[in-house]
Amino acid sequence: MKTIRQQLINALMDRDMTALDLSQELGIREKEVYEHLPHIARSVASRGKKLIMMSPRCLKCGFIFKERTRFTRPGRCPRCRGTYIEAPAYRIEAARRKA
Question: Among residues 23, 60, 66, 92, which is most buried (max CB within 10 A)?
């Protein structure tokens, strides 16, 4: 039996997924997924991989949260103050080597 984090890592190796997608696939709360993501990032980094977060974007004005480092969904847009924010998606990929 695999742990929750191992199951999350396996799911993220296959495709881009949001926290909601992951919670539905594994049968856990969305909030619990967010709690595991920082640990998963450290764990896969030790194996030469990287947890990538696709930047969330405001659905009202199109603002992209490029500088965001937290894994959770932003509460509101800093430009228009809208709360219709696209959920960030995550995936695991091999880390790029510096030349």
Answer: 92
| Bridge partners of residue 53, in order along the sequence | 90
Largest Cα–Cα separation, the chain: 46
pLDDT by residue (tens digit) across 41-98?
A: 999 998 889 999 999 999 999 999 998 889 988 999 999 999 999 999 999 988 665 5
pTM of the model: 0.81
Q: How far is CA 23 from CA 8, 9, 29, 36, 52, in A?
A: 9, 13, 6, 11, 18
Secondary-structure class of domain 4-94 per CATH = mainly alpha
